[in-house]
Write a structure and sequence with these properties.
Elements: E1 6-11, E2 32-33, E3 37-38, H1 41-49, E4 54-58, H2 64-70, E5 84-88, H3 103-108, H4 111-115, E6 121-126, E7 129-131, H5 135-144, E8 149-155, E9 165-169, E10 175-180, E11 189-198, H6 199-208, H7 217-227, E12 232-236, E13 241-243, H8 247-256, E14 284-285, E15 290-292, E16 295-296, E17 301-302, E18 305-307, E19 310-311, E20 316-317, E21 322-324, E22 327-328, E23 333-334, E24 339-341, E25 343-345, E26 350-351, E27 356-359, E28 377-379, E29 384-385, E30 390-392, E31 395-398, E32 410-411, E33 416-418
Parallel strand pairs: 1-4, 1-6, 4-5, 8-12, 14-17, 15-18, 16-19, 17-20, 18-21, 19-22, 20-23, 21-24, 22-25, 23-26, 24-27, 25-28, 26-29, 27-30, 28-31, 30-32, 31-33
Antiparallel strand pairs: 2-3, 6-11, 7-13, 8-11, 9-10, 9-11
GO biological process, one term: glycogen biosynthetic process
Domain Nucleotidyl transferase: 8-257
Binding site for alpha-D-glucose 1-phosphate: 100, 165, 180-181, 191
Length: 424
């Protein structure tokens, strides 16, 4: 029988609805990040850098691009005969068949996969956070404390603590209380959604809670283990960690990559971030181009002005175009004289000549004020913006649009324009 000390189960089935049109056709872990990566590259790279060579990736929502990106795991050296990376979608079973209905339910439906490796420990991860962590150090901590469950936690400002699952730990790191998004938090240690379980403990909990609807780790499994008297410990992490769950935090995390001294460094030799690289030519910066403080992907051609921005692979910035404080994803085209300010332009999009994106005063978005906020203009993938139009802030545009879609040539701040059915 195959024997692995620790395997990882990576939850990558989420929609990420707060990212709006960016996740209309793609799972959140497959959204582009940092010019050449996708969000899932970070936990996958952490696994291989931590010596974990067996990873199950649980997919559900819009999995095509994610599956294509991961493939057989070659970029992460996870193309193994034994172990490696396995894509685990929901599947039809004899009798009751169901979608994954919660984080723990998804893991429960893959008991047979985990059993096949007879692990001592199972690491549970989310596929949608940006961070670097050595899971081996966390495992050593788990063993040293004779723990049944270890929860990675990080200190957060007390005023933000009610947004998270909060753990209260004693001076030895043992968890004495677990609060799920409490109104009055008793500590500032937030759960990061990263758990190490001793395998028999996880298996027993999942089987016992099998009938629980929408079974979830934070709401059900952790409280169950705590109530049973299992040893739960808090593993404190003090590095960079970002949940890029909103357009604002996603934009911010990208912009932090180009700080003079970035808090999250993509250039560290000892902790590389691996990704699937397309076979494309090098970037080209023309003589008349102006480029200042940017990340620019391979195959990009820049003839205009780019400042404080992240430009994905294969993009084209034409002569006279100006891109400031923006994220432009792969194969997007910014035509001559177009101006972008604090915009997110998704893949395979064309911004027409002399159009202005992100102009005017801010106004709350009328359709989804909590999503299309932060003063951003968001353009969905495969969208066409015609020449000579203006688009305001807190806006979203999807589909092939024409001049007639813009009364007086303007989409005012707070408005949305949906020609692709992506915004509903």
């Amino acid at each position: 029988m195959i024997k692995k000390e620790m395997i990882a189960m990576l939850l990558a089935g989420g929609q990420g609805s707060r990212l709006g049109v960016l996740t209309a056709k793609v799972a959140k872990p497959a959204v582009a990040f940092g010019g050449k990566y996708r969000i899932i590259d970070f936990p996958l790279s952490n696994c291989i850098n931590s010596g974990i060579d067996t990873v199950g990736v649980l997919t559900q929502y819009q999995p095509l691009r994610l599956n294509t990106h991961i493939g057989i795991g070659i970029p992460w050296d996870l193309d193994k005969n034994v172990g490696g990376v396995s894509i685990l979608p929901p599947y039809e079973k004899v009798g009751k068949t169901e979608w994954y209905t919660g984080t723990a339910n998804a893991i429960y439906q893959n008991l047979a996969y985990m059993e096949s490796f007879n692990p001592d420990y199972v690491l549970i991860l989310s596929g949608d956070h940006i961070y670097k962590m050595d899971y081996e150090v966390m495992l050593d901590y788990h063993k040293a404390h004779n723990a049944d469950v270890s929860i990675a936690v990080m200190p957060v400002p007390k005023e933000e603590a009610s947004r998270f699952g909060i753990v209260v730990a004693d001076e030895n790191g043992r968890i004495v209380e677990f609060q799920e998004k409490p109104k009055e938090p008793k500590s500032n240690l937030a759960s990061m959604g990263i758990y190490i379980f001793s395998w028999p403990i996880l298996k027993e909990a999942l089987i016992t809670l099998a009938e629980q609807s929408n079974c979830d780790f934070g709401k059900h499994v952790i409280p169950y283990c705590h109530a049973k008297g299992e040893t739960l410990v808090a593993y404190e992490y003090n590095g960079y960690w970002k949940d890029v769950g909103t357009l604002g935090s996603y934009w911010e995390a990208n912009m932090e990559l180009i700080d003079i001294i970035p808090e999250f460094n993509l250039y560290e030799e000892f902790w590389k971030i691996y990704t699937k690289n397309e076979i494309i030519p090098p970037q080209y910066i023309s003589e008349e181009a102006k480029v200042e403080r940017c990340l620019i992907g391979d195959g990009t051609e820049v003839y205009g002005e780019v400042c404080n921005s992240i430009i994905g692979c294969g993009a084209l910035i034409e002569k006279g175009a100006v891109v400031r404080d923006s994220i432009v994803m792969e194969n997007a085209v910014i035509r001559e004289g177009a101006v972008l300010n604090k915009a997110i332009v998704a893949e395979n999009t064309e911004i027409g000549a002399r159009s202005q994106i992100g102009v005017g005063e801010e106004a709350p978005n009328k359709l989804k004020p909590a999503v299309y906020a932060f003063g951003l203009a968001v353009i969905a993938e495969n969208t066409v913006i015609p020449p000579d139009v203006k688009i305001g802030k807190n806006t979203a545009v999807a589909g092939v649009t024409v001049k007639e879609d813009y009364p007086d040539g303007i989409l005012a701040s707070g408005e949305t324009l949906d020609k692709a059915g992506d915004l509903s």
